């Protein structure tokens, strides 16, 4: 299928499909005229990429995980579970950092509001 067909079928913009290909997440073959052609498994690959992006994984990690899927779903082989657990822990750490930053900003806003109220 051509890139426009893949875009329509998956709801993903052509520009993003090109980006996925440039990042090594998606493969195509080129016609003599230079047009991209994708195999019938491409929509499944795009759905997997979208799922992993939504989970907060960077494209570098996604590229490593793409060959490790089991079946047509989003289940991955057991050999990558440690890698996913590390990513999960990193998300927890970022959430904790953001929570702390949010609390600090809230304190600044509250103090500033009190100052304006008493001025």
UniProtKB/TrEMBL annotation:
Family matches, as SMART domains: HTH_MERR
Alphabetical list of PROSITE patterns matching this protein: HTH_MERR_1, HTH_MERR_2
Chain ranges of the HTH merR-type domain: 1-68
Official protein name in the record: DNA-binding transcriptional MerR regulator
Single Gene Ontology MF annotation: DNA binding
Organism: Amycolatopsis roodepoortensis
Lineage of producing organism: Bacteria, Bacillati, Actinomycetota, Actinomycetes, Pseudonocardiales
Keyword terms, alphabetized: DNA-binding, Repressor, Transcription, Transcription regulation
One family name in Pfam for this protein: MerR_1
